[in-house]
């Protein structure tokens, strides 16, 4: 019976409309919408990647070889299994535009493609001419197409000529779209495309040049990709190849999307947590308004359970409305912002309404609403019928009964577990949940402390006579204080923002401020052995150069550890794909051998290996272990005889794996170098070395740092948007709190005016009160954000932490500003209303 | 009669309601002498409280003039009225109207602080002691009984030593014994400080304690009051 009665009461109560629930609905809908939108975008991109997998990959399957082209036998095997094969080669080089006596030089990621390219999709050119026509060039020079960014950097126009290595090309078009670039990773130089055959005579591809050849295969319909992959492993056994196919065309991209989306969902959950404060406050305020009704119902004989259910039904109905609103908004947002998303993430996507992510968002919304409303709902049980005859202000201040506490905990566990499972990032989710919980508890503690301190200060002699300040402190610390909801709702958003600010400034500081101090000016690759001496002489002969280091450079894949496939031993990053390896007779300058012993001088015995100590420990390698390294298709097995420290933080030369010279000297290879020079000498070095040896590629570390900084700025911006979204929800909660408090403030203002307070004094009182809460939230944000920044800087980035005061001050100012804004937005009515009206309405 | 402390000339008050404008006070003319105790009586809705509000500058007359201590309240702005009140008036309400976020002591000290009194808290504490509420000064209104709350309200009204005390059914929410005690305190205050007291009441025995009683009926002064004037 109680259920039916409860439903009846709930229906009657809801007839009053939803006007008191705007904040409830806004908070819930926003949180659900954010999660639904992120999930929908992820699903759109995943489906797009799956649909266009062949275009993204450039073929149904791809075989990548490092440092060499396929042998005739390998090529024959590829042609046997495919309908068509396209061959391309990819490497870094310098595009050189002669200008008067000197020349303009730009780093480029050069790609030579054959006539079959692209197997799928189309190249976009401006002017829109066929690729083959673009490559035909002029009778004098072969044609090339180039990324517009590089064209602008080099000051080129269509029809101008430039050099790649020792050969001159004519620019015939701007490359506006390369169909198969989504699968690619980070590149330092913008793209230049030339015909593969035209690379002959450039002198760029020589034994030891760092290049990758890629073979795209158009397979017959219904080809068994898994079987072909196995066949490829047999046909190219030990050749150090890498196989990809349409089953996962862009593993890097889809992993990036998944990680970013999961991370943003976690940010969304933080937003939902902040929104939960608003939801909880709205329910509490609603039930406080209903205290009289509840007491009356009890007087009339309604049981506690009936009353609990009656209000639970109402909240459930409102939750359903909030979730539906959120889902509609979340599904619509990606469609509305489609052009913006497409511009930021140039990845094929299938836009539409995707039920999966919407269900996930609805689940989070439901659990969050249950989590944040159960506690205030449980307090309906504490309202006594006697409340009707006595002041009810103290009613419902205690803890709910244990079944409600247990249910709240169970919902919390369910929410975190759902997020952990659905995000696929269990560890990160648990850490985030712990972080949000810790932040919540800290903010609650701070809100409590703020009230205590405000209370104390209000009684202090120093504020006596300063009536506005004393009154503001008094109400900040007194009963009905808004400290809890304001500090909680604002604090969490500001904390995330502060943490992002500190981490970002430290990271960028480390890269842009500290790194150039210790980093070389140039990183030089593709120095041929016969060019090495000349290069060294030229570089060291420059008065601006302080140091030049060179090392032989080969690329190799660690394929086996003690005879077992390396991928079975560990999935450490050093074992994925090919790595730069070197050889040297002596330990590198400054490198400390931490275990074992370096090979003796003139050692010519079985290959010996020195491995980076930290990475070896991460993989679990020991002295005496045997590593098999595939270099240019040849397996070299050596014993680890020493570990040494390798410092990657200064952008200098650092090799994970070094061998004794006799083991590798016979393999074709080039050399790399680092040049440490004054800034003034940098342009001169580029001119002299680039002019003398056109095949040598010089990478400006300063430009690379700028490029990395740009990427970091992008990631920081994405995170900042997430934090701002949380802050926006917090602002809605603040507005809700301010709106809820308007009646109380109107009453207070009326009494104060009766006692002789001017409107200025009343306004100052309200403003100071808001500022106190904003200041508290801002200070928590600085401390918590600073701590998070310190932890990430110290333990993850392993660099020294600098407290960044500008963003910290901005955050406190922002906190004060936002609370002032929310508070003052609702100060108008209290100030404008005549005291008599308010006071008599209360008589 | 000594020089009047307040003079109302054809004072009118009409307010906009859902059913159109309602005339609350329909041309009240009245003089109140300094030090006098004036009782305002009449049935509910007759305009007693509204007249009190006009006298306190809490409501603005829509016609006529309201002059208090030589100042025309109808010509003063909101803030000027607030300053005038804190320097010259104390108001006590039926529902006490204590600020719920302030303790008893802070409630009493507030008008003194607003007036810039240097020893506001000491004076407020002394006033609470005089009301027998010294031990309760740190309590919030919700922690006090109705009688205690009204005593705090009295202390708050009296602390600035106002020229005029306005009391709107100060015992309306209290039981008889407590109400009588409050009235003793109120009249005691008036006697101690020599303030003019204007009291709205339904209770005949309270009205009988006043120097003069006027009756309002439907927004006008009843003939008896007119005669008394």
TrEMBL record, chain A:
The membrane topology term of the UniProt record is: Multi-pass membrane protein
Q: Where is the ABC3 transporter permease C-terminal domain?
A: 267-379, 724-831
Name the coiled-coil region(s): none
Residue ranges crossing the lipid bilayer per the database entry: 21-41, 263-287, 308-337, 357-378, 399-422, 428-449, 711-738, 775-796, 808-828
Q: Which InterPro entries match?
A: ABC3_permease_C, Membrane_comp_ABC_pdt
Cellular compartments annotated: Cell membrane
* The keyword Methyltransferase belongs to this UniProt entry's keyword annotation: no
Source organism superkingdom:
Bacteria
Which GO CC terms are listed, alphabetically? plasma membrane
Swiss-Prot/TrEMBL keywords: Cell membrane, Membrane, Transmembrane, Transmembrane helix
- Provide the protein name: FtsX-like permease family protein
Which species expresses this protein natively?
Answer: Psychromarinibacter sediminicola
TrEMBL record, chain B:
Q: Which residues form the signal peptide?
A: none
This protein's GO CC annotations: plasma membrane
Indicate the segments forming the ABC transporter domain, all copies: 8-229
Q: Keywords assigned by UniProt?
A: ATP-binding, Nucleotide-binding, Transport
Which domain of life, per UniProt? Bacteria
Q: Which GO terms describe its molecular function?
A: ATP binding; ATP hydrolysis activity; transmembrane transporter activity
Question: What InterPro entries would the database entry show?
Answer: AAA+_ATPase, ABC_transporter-like_ATP-bd, ABC_transporter-like_CS, ABC_transpr_LolD-like, MacB-like_ATP-bd, P-loop_NTPase
Say if the entry is tagged with keyword Lipid biosynthesis: no
Question: Is the keyword Membrane in the record?
Answer: no
PANTHER family to which the protein is assigned, alphabetical: IMPORT ATP-BINDING PROTEIN, TRANSPORTER, PUTATIVE-RELATED
Protein name in UniProt: ATP-binding cassette domain-containing protein
**Taxonomic source organism:** Psychromarinibacter sediminicola
């Amino acid at each position: 019976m109680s259920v039916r009665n409860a439903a009846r009461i709930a229906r009657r109560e809801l007839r009053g409309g939803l006007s008191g629930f705007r904040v409830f609905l806004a908070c819930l809908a926003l949180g659900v919408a954010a999660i639904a939108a992120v999930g929908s975008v992820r699903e759109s991109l995943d489906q797009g990647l799956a649909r266009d997998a062949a275009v993204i990959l450039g073929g149904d399957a791809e075989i990548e070889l490092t440092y060499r082209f396929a042998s005739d036998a390998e090529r024959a095997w590829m042609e046997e299994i495919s309908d068509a094969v396209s061959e391309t080669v990819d490497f870094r080089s310098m595009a050189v535009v002669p200008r008067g006596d000197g020349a303009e030089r730009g780093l480029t990621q050069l790609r030579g493609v054959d006539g079959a390219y692209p197997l799928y999709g189309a190249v976009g050119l401006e002017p829109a001419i066929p690729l083959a026509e673009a490559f035909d060039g002029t009778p004098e020079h072969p044609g090339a197409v180039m990324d517009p960014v590089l064209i602008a950097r080099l000051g080129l126009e269509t029809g101008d000529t430039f050099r790649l290595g020792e050969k001159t090309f004519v620019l015939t078009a701007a490359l506006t779209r390369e169909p198969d670039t989504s699968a690619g990773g980070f590149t330092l130089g913008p793209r230049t495309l030339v015909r593969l055959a035209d690379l002959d005579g450039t002198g760029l591809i020589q034994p030891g040049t760092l290049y990758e050849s890629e073979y795209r295969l158009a397979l017959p319909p219904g080809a068994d990709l898994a079987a072909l992959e196995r066949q490829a492993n047999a046909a190219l056994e030990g050749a150090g190849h890498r196989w990809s196919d349409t089953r996962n065309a862009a593993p890097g991209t889809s992993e990036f999307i998944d990680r970013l989306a999961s991370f943003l969902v976690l940010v969304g959950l933080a937003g939902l947590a902040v929104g939960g404060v608003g939801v909880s406050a709205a329910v509490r305020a609603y039930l406080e308004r209903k205290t009289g009704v509840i007491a009356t119902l009890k007087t009339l004989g309604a049981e506690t359970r009936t009353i609990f259910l009656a209000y639970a039904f109402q909240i459930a109905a409102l939750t359903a409305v909030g979730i539906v609103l959120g889902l509609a908004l979340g599904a619509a947002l990606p469609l509305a912002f489609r052009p913006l998303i497409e511009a930021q993430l140039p990845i094929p996507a299938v836009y539409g309404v995707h039920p999966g992510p919407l269900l996930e968002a609805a689940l989070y919304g439901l659990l969050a609403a249950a989590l944040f409303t159960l506690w205030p709902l449980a307090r309906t049980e504490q309202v006594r019928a006697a409340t009707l005859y006595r002041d009810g202000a103290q009613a419902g201040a205690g803890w709910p009964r244990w079944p409600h506490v247990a249910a709240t905990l169970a919902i919390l566990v369910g929410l975190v577990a759902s997020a952990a499972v659905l995000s696929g990032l269990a560890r990160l989710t648990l850490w985030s949940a712990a972080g949000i919980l810790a932040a919540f508890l800290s903010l609650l503690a701070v809100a409590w402390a703020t009230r205590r301190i405000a209370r104390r200060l209000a009684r202090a002699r120093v504020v006596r006579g300063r009536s506005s300040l004393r009154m503001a402190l008094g109400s900040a610390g007194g009963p009905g204080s808004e400290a809890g909801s304001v500090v909680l709702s604002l604090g969490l958003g500001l904390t995330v923002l502060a943490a992002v600010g500190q981490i970002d400034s430290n990271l960028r500081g480390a890269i842009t401020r500290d790194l150039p101090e210790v980093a070389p000016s140039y990183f030089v690759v593709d120095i041929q052995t016969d060019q090495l001496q000349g290069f060294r002489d030229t570089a060291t002969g420059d008065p601006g150069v302080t140091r030049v280091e060179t090392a032989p450079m080969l690329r190799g894949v660690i394929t086996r550890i003690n005879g077992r496939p390396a991928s079975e031993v560990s999935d450490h990053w050093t074992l994925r794909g090919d790595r730069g390896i070197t050889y040297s007779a002596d330990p590198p300058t400054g490198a400390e051998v931490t275990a074992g012993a370096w090979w003796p001088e003139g050692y010519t015995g079985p290959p010996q290996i020195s491995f980076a100590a930290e990475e070896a420990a991460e993989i679990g390698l020991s002295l005496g272990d045997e590593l098999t390294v595939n270099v240019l298709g040849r397996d070299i097995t050596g014993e680890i005889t020493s570990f040494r420290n390798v410092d990657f933080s200064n952008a200098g030369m650092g090799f994970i794996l070094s061998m004794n010279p006799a083991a590798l000297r016979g393999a074709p290879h080039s050399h790399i170098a680092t040049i440490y020079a004054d800034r003034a000498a940098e342009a001169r070095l580029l001119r002299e070395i680039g002019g003398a040896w056109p095949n040598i590629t010089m990478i400006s570390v300063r430009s690379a740092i700028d490029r990395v900084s740009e990427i970091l700025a992008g990631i920081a911006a994405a995170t900042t948007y997430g934090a701002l979204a949380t802050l926006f929800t917090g602002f809605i909660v603040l507005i809700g709190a301010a709106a809820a408090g308007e009646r109380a403030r109107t009453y207070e203002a009326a009494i104060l005016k009766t006692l002789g307070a001017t409107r200025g004094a009343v306004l100052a009182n309200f403003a100071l009160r808001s500022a106190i809460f904003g200041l508290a939230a801002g200070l928590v944000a600085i401390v918590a954000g600073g701590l998070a920044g310190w932890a990430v800087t110290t333990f993850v980035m392993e660099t020294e932490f600098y407290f960044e005061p500008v963003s910290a001050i901005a955050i406190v100012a922002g906190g004060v500003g936002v609370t002032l804004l929310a508070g003052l937005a609702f100060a108008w009515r209290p100030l404008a209303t005549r005291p008599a009206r308010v006071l008599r309405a209360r008589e | 009669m000594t020089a009047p402390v307040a003079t109302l000339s054809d004072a009118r008050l009409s307010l906009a309601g859902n059913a159109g404008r309602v005339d609350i006070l329909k041309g009240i003319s009245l003089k109140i002498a300094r030090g006098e105790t004036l009782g305002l009586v009449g049935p509910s809705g007759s305009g007693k409280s509204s007249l009190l509000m006009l006298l306190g500058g809490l409501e603005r007359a829509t016609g006529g003039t309201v002059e208090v201590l030589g100042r025309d309240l109808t010509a003063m702005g909101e803030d000027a009225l607030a300053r005038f009140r804190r320097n010259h008036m104390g108001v006590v309400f039926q529902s006490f109207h204590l600020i719920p976020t302030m303790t008893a002591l802070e409630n009493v000290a507030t008008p003194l602080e607003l007036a810039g009194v240097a020893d506001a808290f000491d004076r407020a504490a002394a006033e609470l002691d005089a009301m027998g509420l010294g031990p309760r000064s740190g309590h919030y209104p919700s922690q006090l009984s109705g009688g205690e709350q009204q005593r705090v309200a009295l202390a708050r009204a009296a602390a600035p030593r106002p020229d005029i005390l306005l009391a709107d059914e100060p015992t309306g929410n209290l039981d008889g014994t407590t109400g009588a005690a409050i009235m003793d305190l109120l009249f005691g205050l008036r006697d101690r400080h020599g303030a003019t007291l204007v009291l709205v009441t339904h209770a005949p025995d309270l009205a009988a304690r006043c120097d003069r009683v006027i009756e309002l009926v439907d927004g006008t002064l009843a003939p008896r009051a007119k005669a008394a004037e």
